[in-house]
Write the structure tokens for this entry.
Amino acid sequence: MTDKNPVTLCLWYDKDAEAAASFYAATFPESAVGARYYAPGDFPGGKEGDLLTVDFTVLGVPCVGLNGGPVFPQTEAFSFQVNTDTQAETDRYWNAIVGNDGTESACGWCKDKWGLNWQITPRVLTDAMANPDAAVRKRAFEAMMTMTKIDVAAIEAAVKG
């Protein structure tokens, strides 16, 4: 990757890194698919000539997708947290991921069809959790704990008490 950023996230996929990269590029702004590299020889999970890696960005973050086979599946130990400004933006990202064979989880988390975890997080929630008033933080937290996709209006109501 020719990006000047000193850090690139390497994301392990079974075999669909290019499809995942294309989905992310179509879903999120400041996202694109870059160079593709093919295996010069056989490797665990693939053969010479198979697509081995694909460079891409997600929201400006440089990544490389590695088609490494099923040995290391994605887990919730890693996720992209995407901060949103409105319910419409939250809905758009959530619905894109879940509506493309992804799955819902709790508290604003969802998983894409390749197993990568996403936190679609409205700024109103992160602002509430940083509020100096412990009662506001508690109300926002308790509201969030009842949700799958975050409901901006419900968080705003919890903040107001």
Summary: The chain has two domains: 1-71, 74-161. The helical segments are 17-27, 87-98, 123-129, 134-144, 152-160. Strands lie at 9-13, 32-38, 51-58, 61-67, 79-84, 103-104, 109-111, 117-122.
